[in-house]
Specification:
Blueprint: E1 20-26, E2 31-37, H1 42-56, E3 63-65, H2 74-80, H3 83-92, E4 93-95, H4 107-118, H5 127-143
Parallel strand pairs: 3-4
Antiparallel strand pairs: 1-2
């Protein structure tokens, strides 16, 4: 500090790490799913895709997916599951990668932006609190059948 300057302070906070949020959205049907994982691994992604396939859309002939994250690849399913299971899931996917520099075209990114504005606009200090908050947000979005136009 120089003589005559006002007092300066710096805010400190304890960083508890990061986590990964997976979001699925059926944009015209208003169906939403959000989950939280402590990490962002190929296995985590594969488990979420299995959920998408078998729980969210078990009767769908094809499921369209996804953005360009490095773990979002068919090979990730083979890391997580036996070859027969991985192949079964892959046959149901129709993968269309969104442009790397076109997040406004990615409906999952639109959903994440809405989630951030409505639910994540503050620091949430534990994963369990985050899971509870996102679960409530997901329930409300599904109840309202919130769509992306």
């Amino acid at each position: 500090m120089r003589p005559g300057d006002g007092q300066k302070t710096d805010a400190e906070y304890k960083r508890n790490g990061t986590c990964s949020i997976f979001a699925f959205v059926e944009p015209l049907g208003g169906k939403h799913h959000v989950s939280v994982h402590e990490h962002r691994t190929a296995i985590d992604w594969a488990q979420e895709i299995q959920y998408l396939s078998d729980v969210m859309f078990p009767d769908a002939e094809k499921i369209m997916a996804m953005d360009n994250l490095n773990t979002h690849k068919a090979a990730s399913l083979y890391k997580a599951f036996p070859p027969d299971e991985a192949g079964r899931i892959i046959k149901r996917l129709e993968i269309h990668y969104t442009p790397r520099h076109g997040s406004w075209l990615d409906m999952a990114e639109i959903e994440l932006n809405v989630m951030t504005l409505q639910c994540l606009s503050r620091r949430i200090d534990t994963i369990s609190k985050l899971k509870n908050e996102l679960s409530a947000w997901e329930t409300e979005r599904n109840r309202d059948e919130a769509k992306i136009r």
